[in-house]
Design a protein that fits this description.
single chain, 285 residues, alpha+beta, D-amino Acid Aminotransferase, Chain A, domain 1, D-amino Acid Aminotransferase, Chain A, domain 2, 2 domains, 6-stranded antiparallel β-sheet, 7 helices
């Protein structure tokens, strides 16, 4: 039986208390954070704490516990052990406003639910089969500050995922309201063209990914590639030498195909090796 941590208490599915006034259910009033575990320890924890703090402030939620590493590490260790995570794992913590009211809440107090499950690999592992991606343009994501957060309103990503499935693809690329490509359903986007690596800027409306931030440091400090943050047009995908996606759970996934275009994975494989090296050494970039 799976176990969760709900407001600091380890519970099983039969004990999980959720209010009928739950604002996550009614309004998507909250956000979530996904954290990768390796060697039974959370990765990039300070980066996640920083993003959580920014999300609490932006959404005007009161944190349910102090945003410091020791407290979060203890909670993660408890729920990981309860779910048999002995090496690599995937953890999700969902924060939601615990208040009655309609669109306007009566308080800003926050509850949270933490869940964890093992991953197939302890460290990051490059996908052996490249991804095929589709272009989702039926709905456009607004390029506004709210778009950089991992809120509980994920319908854009759900619909894009359904679109990719119906197209026989592994993932879908999402566009902003300027029709620039900004990310996929669950990852940040990178292109390689010659000696330059390109990724959409945060002002384009993509999620401020923890893995994205660490990859930018790797590229700038440990490779000879130049880096450009900016807008990405459809034509650039068709001209790129490589395309890869990044998120904190999988690290890097290389894309093999977009429409008729085919890509390789030399750069993405090298960057993943660098990530694993620093992860094992627990080095700061």
């Amino acid at each position: 039986m799976a176990s969760w941590i709900y407001n600091g208490r380890l519970v099983n599915s039969g004990e999980l208390p959720l209010s009928p006034h739950n604002r996550a259910f009614h309004y998507g009033d909250g956000f979530f954070e996904t954290i990768r575990i390796a060697d039974r320890k959370p990765l990039w924890l300070n980066d996640h704490l920083d993003r959580m703090s920014r999300s609490f402030a932006f959404l005007q939620l009161t944190p349910p516990f102090p945003m410091e590493g020791d407290r979060l590490s203890k909670l993660i260790a408890e729920v990981a052990e309860a779910n048999g995570v002995l090496a690599g794992g995937r953890l999700r913590v969902t924060f939601f406003r615990e208040a009655e009211g309609y669109y306007t809440p009566l308080t800003d107090k926050c509850s949270y639910l933490m869940q964890c499950q093992p991953t197939e690999y302890n460290h990051y592992h490059l996908n052996t089969r490249g991804l095929h991606v589709a272009l989702y343009n039926q709905n456009l994501k607004p390029a506004i500050p709210l778009s950089s957060l991992k809120t509980l309103n994920s319908l854009m990503y759900v619909l894009a995922g359904i679109y990719a499935r119906n197209q026989g693809c592994d993932d879908a690329l999402i566009m902003n309201d300027y029709t620039n490509i900004i990310e996929s359903t669950n990852s940040n986007l990178f292109l390689v063209k010659g000696n330059t690596i390109v990724t959409p800027g945060l002002d384009e409306g993509c999620v401020a990914g923890v893995m994205r931030g660490n990859l930018l440091k790797v590229i700038e400090n440990h490779t000879e590639y130049s880096l450009r943050r900016g807008n990405v047009r459809v034509g650039e995908l068709e001209e790129a030498d490589e395309v890869f996606l990044s998120n904190t759970i999988r690290g890097i996934q290389w894309v093999v195909g977009f429409r008729q275009k085919r890509y390789y994975n030399k750069v993405s494989g090298h960057l993943l090796s660098l990530l694993n090296h620093h992860m094992v050494q627990r080095e700061e970039f």
